[in-house]
Fold:
Amino acid sequence: RDRSPSRGLGDVYKRQRRFRALNYLQEKGDATWNIVNCNVVITPLSKNERKVLLYSANLQVRGGFSDEAIRRQAIAEFITCLQKEPYNMSREEALGATKSVSTVNPRTIERDARIEEKLEGKLKELLNDKFLTRSECETYLRFEEDIQDEIAERFAKLQEVDCHSSDTEDAGKNYVEVLRDNLHDAFRELLLSLIHISEPTRRTPIS
Structure:
C-alpha cells in the first residue's frame, strides 16, 4: 500500500464540504443524492499513521491552527511522526512533506519547526504565554544555552511584576505596566546590540 502521508490528504477538506453539501441537498428534498458512492479505508493503521493523518488534515484545513503555539507544536509533532515507522523520512524530507500538506507559508513552517525544536525551558513558556514574540525568540536562539537560561530568568522576573494592583491603577495609564514594557524593550535592544557586536557580518534574521 502507498504509505505517503500526502496520499488522499489533499481531498480531506473537499470531502468534508461535499458531505455538508449532500446533507444540505437532502434537507432541501433533492432525492438525487439519496445514494452516494464512497470509498472506505479498512486497512489497519498504526498509532503513528493515525497521528499523521490527523495532523495532516488539521494543518491543511485550518491553515496550521489559529493559535501560534498550537500550530508550532503541531508542525513539530508532524515532522517527528514522519521520521518514524513506516515513513522513515529524514528531517529535511519531513519538513518538505509538511510544507506540501500545510497551507502555512513555507518560511513560517521552517521558523516554527526551528523554534519548537531548539527553544527550550522558560523561554518557550514565555513565548507560549505571549510575553515574548516569535521574532525576538528567533534572535535569542543565537545565544548559547546558558545565556538563554539567563535571558529567560530576567524576562520571567519582568513577567511576574504585578501591573494591576490597586496601588497602581489611580493614574489614567498604568505606570507600572508602561515601565515594565519599557524595560522589556530596552533589554531586547541590548541583546540585539550584543549580537551585532559579536557577529558584525551577520545582520539578517534567522530563517
Notes: Residues 6-11, 201-207 have pLDDT under 50 and may be disordered. DSSP finds nine helices and no strands in the chain. Residues 175-198 form the longest helix (24 residues).
